[in-house]
């Protein structure tokens, strides 16, 4: 007995495209985490000396000027950028982790210093009562930063020309060099003397060493590594530059604001040269960050298929 099998054409069902940025579990917590970070940063700033709030830090009047400058930038820049990153994450925009990395790392850097810095035996204050707030900001910033960096590593960015990489890398290296040689080495050498004379060390030695540890152990090595990586054309540095420059733009603005407040209040540790230098670095940092982010925010990465990436790379070379 012969059985004839008829061929039937079956149209395959196209695979469902899932927007992992919008539906993935990380996106569901990243957006509210960024909102919480913005609220926490703004709250810590508004409760502090910027507005004459209830938070009183165990630091000298001179160090308090730096706190005020940092709080000003936290309210005017860091919190809004964090909310903007939350909006991008909620919309599933792939540029969200690039923008989020800046305020996240800023929060970890800044609120570590505010939580553990200060001379609790020498100066009156009550900042220890707000430790839970600083801890929450630190944990949120750390979690967002780790997740953002993991997401950035999976993204494909617009190509840079060799000249652009070298110019940008050189700028980052110059900033790292200025922070090391121009800002920290003079005060560090003075602190190593038998009888230090610099007022920032004599008035707040605890804050002094915490800042030295974080700047020389985190800021300078990070900027140097990214700068050298860009000059050498490393792929990881190309990606890291986007997040690192957003962070630097925020941090540079904060340091510039500190310098301005110190000048206005005639702080004995104020330096006109440092104020001008950090103002210029902050301005350039903000400009570079905006120029890097503008094409990403305008079209995202959705239309950047591999063929267009290759075409752009060939054109850049």
Structural features, described:
This protein has helices spanning 20-23, 25-46, 61-90, 96-116, 131-153, 162-191, 199-203, 205-232, 235-264, 272-299, 306-316. By secondary structure, the chain is mainly alpha-helical. It has one domain. Helix 2 packs antiparallel against helix 5. Mean pLDDT is 85; it is low at 1-25 and 301-317.
Features:
11 helices; globular; disordered N terminus
Give the topology, please.
Elements: H1 20-23, H2 25-46, H3 61-90, H4 96-116, H5 131-153, H6 162-191, H7 199-203, H8 205-232, H9 235-264, H10 272-299, H11 306-316
Helix pairs in contact: 2-3, 2-5, 3-4, 3-9, 4-5, 4-9, 6-8, 8-9, 9-10
Oligomer: single chain
Tally of structural domains: 1
Give the % helix. Answer: over 70%
How widely separated are the two ends? 69 Å
Can you give the mean pLDDT?
Answer: 85
The helix/strand series, from N terminus to C terminus, equals HHHHHHHHHHH
- Strand tally is 0
Instruction: Report Rg.
Output: 24 Å
Sheet with most strands: none
* Shape label: globular
**Helix/strand structural class:** mainly alpha
Low-confidence stretches: 1-25, 301-317
- Strand percentage: under 5%
Count of DSSP-assigned helices: 11
Summarize the structure.
With 317 residues, the protein is mostly helical. It has helices spanning 20-23, 25-46, 61-90, 96-116, 131-153, 162-191, 199-203, 205-232, 235-264, 272-299, 306-316. The chain is built from eleven helices and no strands.
